[in-house]
Design brief:
Its EC number is 2.6.1.9. GO terms for molecular function: histidinol-phosphate transaminase activity; pyridoxal phosphate binding. This is Histidinol-phosphate aminotransferase. Pathway: Amino-acid biosynthesis; L-histidine biosynthesis; L-histidine from 5-phospho-alpha-D-ribose 1-diphosphate: step 7/9. By secondary structure, the chain is an alpha/beta fold. It has two domains: 122 residues, Aspartate Aminotransferase, domain 1 (Alpha-Beta Complex); 198 residues, Type I PLP-dependent aspartate aminotransferase-like (Major domain) (Aspartate Aminotransferase, domain 2). 37% of the residues lie in helices and 15% in strands. The protein is built from twelve helices and 13 strands. Strands 2-8-7-6-5-3-4 form a seven-stranded mixed beta sheet, sandwiched between helices. The protein has a four-stranded antiparallel beta sheet with strand order 9-10-13-12. Strands 1-11 form a two-stranded parallel ribbon. Helix 3 packs parallel to helix 9, helix 4 packs across helix 5 and helix 10 packs parallel to helix 12. The longest helix is centred in the C-terminal third of the chain and has 26 residues.
């Protein structure tokens, strides 16, 4: 079977999601999931009928939440499908390219490689900001530039002035894709207000993080109508199952939004608590984070990650040397993880 696969697929290394990596334990802080297990009650009727490609009630609800018009919203199976749709819709395999800026989310490169689209790598600066001169030098044949803010796994925000400069630089050349999967934890940093000024801006969103709906697989692409219409040409006929649309609408209702606001505030408080406590530990660096996770540098990150894994505290190792990404869980989970780290580091230095 391997020989029958396309050459790009034969050479492809799949994205190692948290679930593919596995693990076993009682503290799961590796996938940037919410610790809140919210309950929804569904009527679950009309399942004998196909769903709408773009359920109007869901589109209207998210448009109202995001502050855009319904014509500027496309719903997808998670933000990952939005990434894939953008590559398939705008990049010719074997001809065009994308730009992405590591360390960042791995699915931009995976989606492009799967389809046979060149990947141009322009690393972030030492401050984890855009290297605008290097991006400008790399724009030949580029159709999409992916930017993640808050960036995963570093947690920092990309400078707004640099985003605007990038948008100016790429006019009539390429689409700038802002991945805002974690923007609900810092909504003031969104670029949604730039949509009306830049027709080549696309914004990725998800309900997996702040809305505690990772298992629902409901995402959105925000863009101007002309760009949305291109994506509608390549999206699957029935991408949104009826129960998914129904639950997402409940989460976007008045009561659902109030609950999400409370839970977001709790997670932001837990992030502040965990960061402050970790900063008190010698030889530990805590990087500023604006999502529901923190990137931490330890004296030996790989050893700390493995020790936590063996103790049933599942964190996420990082491509950045000696760094471990820790999702923000409940206060109890944060305390248990913090106490483990303190004990482990004390044993190493004893």
């Amino acid at each position: 079977m391997e020989k029958l696969a396309r050459k790009q697929v034969q050479a492809l290394t799949p994205y190692l999601s948290a679930r593919r990596i596995g693990g076993s334990g009682d503290v799961w802080l590796n996938a940037n999931e919410s610790p809140f297990d919210n309950t929804y009650t569904l009527e679950a009727s009309s399942l004998n009928r196909y769903s709408d490609c773009q359920p109007p009630q869901l589109i209207s609800a998210y448009a109202a939440y995001a502050g855009v018009t319904p014509e500027q919203v496309l719903t997808t199976r998670g933000a990952d499908e939005g990434i894939e749709l953008l590559v398939r819709a705008f990049c010719e395999p074997g001809e065009d390219a994308i730009v992405y800026c590591p360390p960042t989310y791995g699915m931009y490169a995976i989606s492009a490689e799967t389809i046979g689209v060149e990947r141009k790598v322009v690393p972030l600066t030492d401050e984890w900001q855009l290297d605008l001169p290097a991006i400008e030098r790399s724009l030949d044949k580029v159709k999409l530039v992916f930017v993640c803010s808050p960036n995963n796994p570093t947690g920092n925000l990309i400078n707004r002035d640099d985003i605007i400069a990038l948008l100016e630089m790429t006019q009539d050349k390429a689409i700038v894709v802002m991945d805002e999967a974690y923007i609900d934890f810092c909504p003031e940093a969104s670029t949604v207000d730039l949509l009306n000024d830049y027709p080549h801006l696309a914004i990725l969103r998800t309900m997996s993080k702040a809305f505690a709906l990772a298992g629902l697989r409901c995402g959105f692409t925000l863009a101007n109508e002309a760009l949305i219409n291109v994506l509608l040409k390549v999206i699957a006929p029935y991408p949104v199952p009826v129960p998914v649309a129904d639950i997402a609408c409940l989460a976007l209702s008045k009561d659902g939004l109030e609950r999400a606001t409370t839970q977001i505030a709790t997670l932001n408080e837990n992030r502040t608590y965990l960061a402050a406590e970790l900063k008190e530990i010698a030889n530990v660096t805590v990087y500023s984070g604006f999502g529901n996770y923190l990137l931490i540098r330890f004296p030996n990150g790989d050893a700390l990650f493995k020790a936590a894994w063996d103790a049933g505290i599942i964190l996420r190792n990082s491509p950045i040397q000696d760094c471990v990404r820790i999702s923000i869980g409940s206060r109890e989970e944060c305390e248990k993880t913090l106490n483990f780290i303190k004990t482990q580091l004390a044993q190493i230095t004893a």
